[in-house]
Design a protein that fits this description.
The protein has 571 residues and is an alpha/beta fold. It is 36% helix and 20% strand. The chain folds into four domains: 87 residues, no CATH class; 60 residues, 2-Layer Sandwich (Alpha-Beta Plaits); 184 residues, Rossmann fold; 191 residues, Rossmann fold. Helix 2 crosses helix 4.
């Protein structure tokens, strides 16, 4: 399509892309753009994206060709596409797959399409120690334990390696999906769940086996993981964010498959059992023992893996598949051990590839590239997740706190703004408005949450709450015996509360985009009555609370959600 002034996009030569949010074609444009660009800013009228090498490589790995990316820009661009942008997209896209990890006669080797590229990379200090004998002008030997670390080093050099070396099968485990569940109700995967599972197995060489599937909360990522386990038919380790999440995974496995209870175990701070399917928490995997004679703990970069007594669970059993739930939260020690076990199939599940530590390239190189990405609003339109209305309520800081905020140290300012007592009357009004709904009140600071729970006479769930009490309260919320819960960030991830339809956020982890996505996700399960979900964020005007809120909303803006902004007087 020829560029026209009626289009919503302005593409600039520095590879930033400006999208006019209110344009009639903005949604169609956003759906294409999100596949190969990253959203950086999303104020009311103009959203700014950036096309990066990693965003292009992820698009390539999920099957999108450079020509499709350029065509999408040209279709929606208001002005002629800068030649340098088209050239850069083609150049970066061509880098993916030029270096390949392959296995020949049982030996691992790095091969390249052009010998000059190999000459370039073997001279890099970060790569040299990971390579062995030069086998040919276009091939070099790779040590069996260097596979992951080599991929990490190559991606930082701008040469992402395509891993076609295959995977060990693991110990066999026969399992299948039930066709009827919950009292003889028919069960089958949804079309997009089938597509996602097939995309995982299509990528990675020799039958597939490494990659990340990106789907919104409530879309059934657990079901897709289980389908991947059925196809793998092998011993599987599932890594999850909490004990509650581990138990929900176990319940789903027993409900949806023919596995027996003794075939699925929990490996956590409370129970440490190993079975053909073992579900372990990130917390127990990253537990560090104290070393005699050493004061304090070494930084992770200096720590030996033997300081983590449970981390060898990743490698010591004959797993054929490792599932990383909420892979965007993967802790650094698990990254390090994952680098050593690249011969095992790896599946990452997440609602967002955004990582606040900027280690997206480690997810790409060690877990695998993005294989499937389901747009949130597309699934909403099909009725698989609930439609959501996002509202930001701005309140004025009390005059007596304005000066305290102004003179406070930078590290203390956000707590003052986020915990402003001016938010409490707004909270009261919102809870009264949604008295008949299932409401989650979410916050970051324990003192604030204690005050809110007492004020609302509502149960409180934090990290201090025993697991049994959490499960009892969650079950009460599902049945309707509890209609209002006050929760800390422990409820951000992998908590199945399909009845929740209202969330009120009073404070968060500064500007965390991934947290915002997860918190909205708590209320996106489809509603029995087909109703909307309501997501409120209450922020203090003219403070860093407002600045952080704008940054947190970036990922959701990329998915097509908009925040209406209202004043406290409008609640």
């Amino acid at each position: 399509m020829i560029a026209t002034h009626d289009n919503p996009l302005i593409v600039q030569s520095d590879r930033t892309v400006l999208l006019e949010a209110g344009h009639p074609r903005a949604e169609a444009c956003r759906a294409q753009l999100a596949r190969f660009a990253e959203l950086e800013r999303s104020p009311e009228h103009i959203h700014t994206y950036r096309i990066t090498p990693l965003s292009i490589w992820n698009a390539r790995a999920s099957g999108m060709a450079a020509e499709e990316m350029v065509a999408a820009l040209r279709e929606f661009s208001r002005y002629p596409l800068p030649a340098s942008v088209a050239y850069e997209i083609a150049d970066q896209a061509a880098r993916y797959g030029r270096l390949r990890l392959e296995r020949v006669d049982g030996a691992l080797r790095l091969t390249v399409s052009e010998p000059a590229i190999l000459e370039e990379v073997i001279r890099a200090r970060s790569v040299a120690g990971l390579l062995g004998e030069r086998l040919a002008p276009d091939a070099v030997e790779v040590g069996p334990l260097a596979r992951g670390r080599l991929k990490q080093a190559l991606i930082k050099l701008g040469w992402p390696a395509e891993d076609l070396a295959g995977y060990t099968p693991g110990a066999p485990l026969s399992l299948s999906l039930r066709t009827r569940v919950d009292g003889d109700r028919p069960f089958a995967l949804r079309d997009y769940q089938v597509e996602a599972a097939e995309a995982f197995w299509a990528g990675g060489g020799l039958g597939g086996g490494s990659g990340v599937l990106v789907l919104p909360c409530g879309a059934g990522k657990t079901v897709i993981g289980i389908q991947s386990m059925v196809k793998a038919a092998t011993r599987t380790l599932v890594l999850v964010t909490s004990i509650v999440a581990a138990r929900q995974w176990r319940e789903e496995l027993l409900r949806l498959t023919d596995l027996a209870p003794d075939q699925v175990s929990e490996y956590s701070g409370e129970e440490k059992a190993v079975a053909p399917v073992t579900i372990a928490t990130y917390q127990v995997m990253t537990y560090r023992k104290r070393i005699a004679g050493r004061s304090g703990r070494r930084p992770l970069d200096d720590a030996a893996l033997d300081e983590f007594p449970h981390l060898d669970l990743l490698g010591r059993e004959d797993w054929g598949l490792i599932v990383y739930d909420e892979v965007h939260l993967l802790p650094a020690p698990v990254f390090r051990m994952t680098a050593e076990i690249q011969s095992k199939r790896r599946l990452g599940l997440t609602a967002t590839l955004v990582r606040e530590d900027r280690r997206e390239d480690d997810v790409f190189s060690l877990i695998g590239p993005k294989r499937y990405d389901a747009p949130w609003r597309s699934l909403e339109a099909q009725g698989w997740i609930a439609p959501a209305v996002c509202t930001e309520v701005r309140v004025a800081m009390p005059s007596e706190l304005r000066m305290e905020y102004a003179v406070a140290e930078a590290k203390d300012r956000y707590r003052l703004a986020a915990c402003s007592p001016a938010k409490l009357p707004v909270l009261d009004a919102l809870c009264a408005r949604h008295r008949g709904d299932r409401v989650l009140v979410i916050g970051q600071y324990l003192e604030q949450l204690d005050e809110i729970a007492a004020r609302l006479d509502a149960p409180l769930i934090t990290g201090r709450t025993p697991t049994a009490d959490r499960e009892r309260l969650y079950e009460g919320f599902r049945t309707g015996d509890v209609r209002l819960l006050v929760v800390s960030k422990v409820a951000n991830f992998s908590i199945d509360l399909p009845e929740a339809n209202v969330a009120i956020q009073l404070s968060g982890t500064f500007g965390s985009r991934q947290e915002e996505a997860q918190r909205l996700g708590r209320i996106l399960r489809p509603k029995a009555d087909g109703g909307q979900a309501r997501f409120y964020t209450v922020i203090s005007r003219e403070t860093n609370d407002q600045d952080y809120a704008m940054h947190r909303q970036l990922f959701l803006a990329e998915q097509g959600y908009r925040y209406e902004i209202i004043d406290e007087s409008e609640v």
